[in-house]
Amino acid sequence: MMPKHCLLGLLIIFLSSATALEIQPAHVSLTPQKVRFQSRNFHNVLHWQAGSSLPSNGSIYFVQYKMYGQSQWKDKVDCWGTTALFCDLTNETLDPYEPYYGRVMTACAGRHSAWTRTPGFTPWWETKLDPPVVTIIRVNASLRVLLRPPELPNRNQSGKNVSMESYYGLLYRVFTINNSLEKGQKAYEGTQRAVEIEGLIPHSSYCVVAEMYQPMIDRRSPRSKERCVQIP
Known about the structure:
The protein is mainly beta. The chain has three helices and 16 strands. It has helices spanning 7-15, 18-23, 123-126; strands spanning 33-40, 43-49, 60-67, 74-82, 86-88, 100-108, 111-112, 116-117, 133-139, 142-148, 171-178, 183-190, 194-197, 205-214, 219-220, 227-230. The longest helix has 9 residues, at 7-15. The radius of gyration is 24 Å and the shape is elongated. Keywords: Disulfide bond, Receptor, Repeat, Secreted, Signal. Pfam families: Interfer-bind, Tissue_fac.
């Protein structure tokens, strides 16, 4: 629920234009702190912390965004007067190669802060990738490993989700762990999503993990959860 002592601040914001607000006195102690994008699999969310004089639940926040080179800031309607400390800007930052900016302002009890702006944010460079989803199928004494990259919010003109490979030259790395010997090794590195692993020791238990590697920017995902199977 919105704090009662902040209702006056909300009314003032909505009765005034953003331009008018920018020329009124700003209160430094209200200024949002650590305004930054956090991005995972191209889901781009703006985060911030409350100003030094207010608890996290004592302020109302207003969010704007723009692409590099644009002169006008755009309001994020869903985050205009929010009490949350984050705002999902995924749909406003869909081009992974373009730099974007976000900014946040605080209002409370008739006072407001200055805008606090993020550094430039380019999704392609800064997003973090989750590990691939791994499925293993035992075929006699060998394993068939199926890899699926994380789903992205981006869609093509046909409305289908765009694949992670459309943006990165991804390499998949598959590792096997022989639980009997407590020994692991790389079994595959390449671009294929379906991998055959042979030469396994009979009557042994194996676990499989995988990761994705982005050679263009020398970055890798975390490793997937272990998937284990017994070799007859």
